[in-house]
Amino acid sequence: MATTLSSIFIGLLILTTLTRLWLARRHVNYVQANRNQVPDAFKQNISLESHQKAADYSSAKTRLAILETIAQAVLLVIFTIGGGLQIVDSVWRSLLPNLEILRGALVILSVMLISSLVDLPFDYYKSFNIDDRFGFNKMTPRMFFADMIKQAFVGLLLGAPILFAALWLMQGAGEYWWFYLWVVWSVFNLLMLAIYPTFIAPIFNKFSPLADDSLKSRIEALLTKCGFKSQGLFVMDGSTRSSHGNAYFTGFGASKRVVFFDTLLDRLDVNEIEAVLAHELGHFKHHHVIKRIIMLFAMSFVGLALLGWLQQQAWFYQGLGVTEPSNYIALMLFLLVSPVFVFILRPFMASYSRKNEFEADAYAAKHADAKYLIEALVKLYRDNASTLTPDPLHSAFYDSHPPASIRIAKLSALQ
């Protein structure tokens, strides 16, 4: 069984990596082939120069993603078949031979740290080469590394308790530890949804109450009309890091709040902002957030049940380069290799997400004016340099939002 697992894993890793590289290359070729012609639906609002900028920006990001895909695949092989995870474990075993839970936490954190260090050059290059070159980056290197340290600190502060809880349950909760962990994990996620807007997001950005009284009145009227109760309307200082614009609502239960990027408010007029908010409210009214939470809980239930079984199989460890089985090694191996096995689900998940976007657009067309949502989207496509001509197959795997031409066509039919 161990040899069979090794063969299946290597085969799937090669297949998924080659598929990702092929899709990326297709996307770049498709975008560049359509670089010199603005789609008919956008000719009046987006110049050829803006269209070419979007094509080049998308291509640059995708070329970087190709290198990152290769690096991640190599690192995964090193950690598994190459015995890297076993080496990390052996180092900590020699230092902490009798403290399994602490040792397990340190092994997992070490692997995560190594992975983050491999990703770091790609993140830095994207911000300070690609985004900088296309006029989007507003960060300084100091801010970039300060954010990275903050993220690591917050991740450790929030993740360490759940990690220790997982290892403690795996060690002492018996055969059904995975079910108890699933309950803890579910409660933890609900708690994070509740506290994120108030306590975590402000660590990274400044949130100020919406000061424009006229806009505030329009938005509050729309919220009342749609039956949405929020903790408040806030403006986020997105311009300190990027010139990209966006809007969203966040939180859960009584902690819900509506957030606008300051860059969005600078670009759109009142009618367009109202239409964008109506779209976000469409997600709320169609219960998309709740449905996603339920889906997350269902997937984590299945995943943890599977891990509970794999943990007891010697071939699971041996087939993935580990000679000394343990609870924490089982958890780490599962986290490392599961993306390879579920890659095939990506187009289904992306399709579901795009369906949600169409539903939110239809809701916005009923409670605002589709014309203004179209105008807002066109501005955002232009100002965010979002390509209007993504490769259809690449889009089917990766895009959570519908391609621009299809989305605008559907909205135009709702006017």
Q: Unreliable stretches, pLDDT < 50, 5 or more residues?
A: none
Fraction in helix: over 70%
| Overall form | globular
Mean pLDDT: 91
Evaluate the radius of gyration: 23 Å
Class by SSE composition: mainly alpha
> Helix segment count?
16
Biggest sheet overview = 4 strands, mixed
Count all strands and give the number.
4
Task: Provide an overview of this structure.
By secondary structure, this protein is mainly alpha-helical. Helix content is 73%, strand content 4%. The chain contains 16 helices and 4 strands. The chain has helices at 2-33, 48-79, 84-95, 100-133, 141-172, 177-204, 213-226, 262-267, 270-285, 288-310, 314-318, 327-342, 346-367, 370-383, 392-398, 404-413, and strands at residues 207-209, 233-236, 247-250, 257-261. It has a 4-stranded mixed beta sheet, with helices on both faces. A hairpin with a 6-residue loop joins strand 3 (247-250) and strand 4. Helix 1 (2-33) packs antiparallel against helix 2 (48-79), helix 1 crosses helix 15 and helix 5 runs antiparallel to helix 6 (177-204). The protein is globular. The termini are far apart.
Secondary structure topology:
Elements: H1 2-33, H2 48-79, H3 84-95, H4 100-133, H5 141-172, H6 177-204, E1 207-209, H7 213-226, E2 233-236, E3 247-250, E4 257-261, H8 262-267, H9 270-285, H10 288-310, H11 314-318, H12 327-342, H13 346-367, H14 370-383, H15 392-398, H16 404-413
Parallel strand pairs: 2-4
Antiparallel strand pairs: 1-2, 3-4
Keywords:
single chain; 415 residues; mainly alpha; four-stranded mixed β-sheet; 16 helices
